[in-house]
Amino acid sequence: MKVTLEFYGRLKDQFSPTPLDVEIKNHASTIESVYLWMCEKHSIEPEVESIKPILNDTFANWDDVVSANDAVGFFPPASGG
After folding, report:
1. Of 18, 41, 52, 65, which one is least surrounded by beta carbons within 10 A?
2. For 21-63, how does the pLDDT look when each residue is reduced to its tens digit (9 = 90+)?
């Protein structure tokens, strides 16, 4: 199934500055499994505890199931002062 992955903040530098259309082979994928797959693909240490997942423009839970044509986003923690 095809999904669009979007990265925000510093995650754009780690993964992609523009949305990615990717093919997910497992049709019962959760947001977390998609994120972990991307981390493995890019050799990046996962940050599940600090990143907030987004599903179709709404904050979501890591165990939410991804469906065909969904937009899945990853929002890093805010920093600064």
Report:
1. 18
2. 999 887 779 999 999 999 999 999 999 999 999 999 999 999 9
The one-letter amino acid at 56: N
Give domain 2-75's CATH superfamily: Beta-grasp domain (3.10.20.30)
* Residue 65 structure tokens: 């199931």
- Tell me the pTM: 0.89
How does strand 20-23 pair with strand 52-55?
unpaired
Residues 6 or more apart whose Cβ sits within 8 Å of residue 74: 5, 6, 7, 8, 11, 15, 35, 51, 52, 53, 54
